[in-house]
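User: Teach me something about this protein's shape.
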Amino acid sequence: MIDHSDKNLDYALRAIQHPQLRETDEFLQWINISGNKELFLELMACKEAVIRENLERKRRVRSRMYIGAAAFTAAAVLVLVFLIPSLFPTTSRQMEQPIRLFDAITDGEHVMLQTDGHSEQLLEDSVMNLKEVGALTSDTICCQTLTTPRGKSFLLVLSDGTKVWINAESSLRYPVAFNGKERRVELKGEACFEVAKNEKCPFIVSTDGMETTVLGTKFNIRSYKTEDRHVTLVQGKVEVTNMTSHQSVILQPGQDLTYTENGEENISRVNIATYTAWTEGMFYFEDASLKDIMSSLGRWYNVNIDFEQAELYHIRLNFWANRDARLEEALELLNKLEKVRVDYQDETITIKHI
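Assistant: First, the predicted structure itself:
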């Protein structure tokens, strides 16, 4: 357990009990102070553990209460089976085929670095600082592409000191040294940026269909092909440009910009921790759709995800798990929420009605 002052502990507990507090500027300033994010996430984990334990206790109580009724019902059904067979049709309805949400892949398991004009290089570490790799000059113009597989993330420190946390199944293309009037990188997938401040040289992130321009700030971008695209601002200010409509919006801290798959645009206040907890090694969802949760699990653990019916996509959950834990542990936590039944067999997770 991390040691914290009583004042911070009291504030964190109030933020957990009153979600509206997490949408204030006061909370955003508080959680960005060293140690406070760890305290808040730790207490959220304790809350989820208590909820799961209460659910398990209630389930055991219900089982004891209904055991007598279940026995009586079973006896009645047996009577009907023998006395009124016409009530039970002999033809059974064909089982519906599950709906595949996410496919496992057989690509590599290592972080790869591709330098222009050179062959790919396998990276064994999970962190790389370009300033420490070798001497860089303003004449250095070559670019590199760093690619993460499913199940791994990576921390890259660019030549200007900008930190980039790159999530699983993502790639970032960047110049080995920045020169000129802008600092431009290209992202596929998801990354969290903590940009080194330089008012004379804006930092630009190009993704599929949008550009995010900053001077010095921290933000998260999610841009996977099969999902809604998100730009979530932690601190500072960013300008996001839709490259189709060429319209721009400016985000404030605590805001999330979403471009849906059908082209809709939406800005909302969000709990920043749910968008950046992955950089701390956690899955953390608040009132999230089961579809989004399972997509994240599928990408991290590289497994197939099937749903019994599409309507199950829209069930909303609060869910918390450690990304370093085994898949079976995460699925056990999902089952304890008693919203759906989660089965795992032959590298495939199947979501079913209870």
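Now, about its shape. Residues 211 and 241 are 5 Å apart (CA to CA). The first strand starts at residue 99 and ends at 102. If you'd like, I can walk through any region in more detail.
User: That's plenty for now, thanks!
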